[in-house]
Amino acid sequence: MTQLLVSVRSAREAESALRGGASLIDVKEPAHGSLGRAGDSTIAEVVRTVAGVRPVSAALGELKDTFDAEPLLAGLSLSYVKWGLAGYHGCGASVWQGELSGVMRLLAEHQPSCRAVAVAYADWRRARAPPPEEVCCFAVEHPVGAFLLDTWGKDVSTLLDWLPLHQVECLRRRCRAAGVPMALAGSLGLDEIRTLLPLRPDWFAVRGAVCQNRQRGAAIDEREVRRLAALLGEQRA
User: Is 28 assigned a catalytic role?
Assistant: First the structure.
């Protein structure tokens, strides 16, 4: 069943997301980019607020800039963490795969309950990231927690402006066949989510769609979270 992931930037926003029906709470700082990392204290406050009621994930920035697993070793009860792969295009697949594999080994050693998410950007060329097919191949061949398809640039474009539906569907089929959970993101609104619903991803990951005035830098609007949660609930009915 497709669930709703809501990205929050504070404990107060986490409360709004929970009341609205979010199934997974993700911590990020949208001012720092697509996978902008929030402060360690913010992540800890969100974890305390959620208190195990729902899983919590955290965005930790771009792997090339922040190749560091130290924050994960502080005893935070995170279910997932993720780094983007912007800037790795042209370095060779062995470089980013080696560094991501290294982080995954650290997680397995120090915090085995937390899993790394393999992140692909639909707008991979402007992000100078590996193409989605390459990242998906890594995800189905390694013990990742999930595969996330997102957009690096946050503007008026959406996931479907950068990757046609049939390509998203191909990636979804590969993940399903391998038993790898998949999340779809990328400035998705109601129209895009309705288009993508037949693919039945494990999560739709949103931020701007559930913020006041649809601005990803504004506060989470509980009513918008509830609206999206209801849409996914209709699918399950």
Answer: yes
